[in-house]
Amino acid sequence: xxxxxxxxxxxxxxxxxxxxxxxxxxxxxxxxxxxxxxxxxxxxxxxxxxxxxxxxxxxxxxxxxxxxxxxxxxxxxxxxxxxxxxxxxxxxxxxxxxxxxxxxxxxxxxxxxxxxxxxxxxxxxxxxxxxxxxxxxxxxxxxxxxxxxxxxxxxxxxxxxxxxxxxxxxxxxxxxxxxxxxxxxxxxxxxxxxxxxxxxxxxxxxxxxxxxxxxxxxxxxxxxxxxxxxxxxxxxxxxxxxxxxxxxxxxxxxxxxxxxxxxxxxxxxxxxxxxxxxxxxxxxxxxxxxxxxxxxxxxxxxxxxxxxxx
Length: 310
Prior knowledge:
This protein is of the alpha/beta class. It has helices at 13-22, 71-80, 101-107, 162-174, 190-197, 210-222, 249-254, 256-261, 279-286, and strands spanning 2-9, 27-32, 58-65, 91-95, 112-114, 118-121, 146-149, 180-184, 202-206, 228-230, 240-246, 263-275, 293-298, 301-307. The chain has a seven-stranded mixed β-sheet with strand order 10-9-8-11-12-14-13, with helices on both faces. The relative contact order is 0.09.
């Protein structure tokens, strides 16, 4: 395969990228044409805010060409559309080396150990001799190793984020078997699956995204566990001994009445997706029902835990 490389000013970068895609290229990337030189310029905005500048002063636009597409035909389309008029010497082609992209991608992701008991294992590392053997599910072993098979690159999270690790560690250290559990905002279903492997007997996994629900069902099947994954309006009435929600602080505050009332008296509420600076605000939102405290922190994120007394 080949790439068409063009240089353009800031004001032209977005229109040029759109026009290249309309002309049939497979992908477009925009880079600082002065990168790694004394003229390199940073490009960023404040977190949560739209940056005022969307490209660099001089941009290197790289378009991946499908086999058989003539670059001169693309340049002619750009000219006819009034987007840009590139003459010979103002553009060039570069070869893209053949590679086994699947194998290269897989090589970047190995098994992840979470705490003492949990291993998240991509399917291509199934049977990896460097990963401890999982405990026999038929034998009650409180300290047994569990494997969760989940492939990086899939949607809805694959266990690498600190908040997921925090929730998994809480489950591994506090589930003793036969618990009922609600995973609200289940995403890939990793927490619900872990709960079942750790001995919970009844697990509901809920998400507002239908694709997340399907992802949870698929991953549960891959891991040979049974759980009930559904949209919020399908969740039956009732309470659980453990409710876990790894979302974000604002949704957690909005959901406080519902999540708190989903916890059985004496049960546990576990929240994450919360930055350390947000912990007090989230805890305050749950104060009418139960006291939430930071159970553990990692990389600026916290896991909050509370036990309902009545």
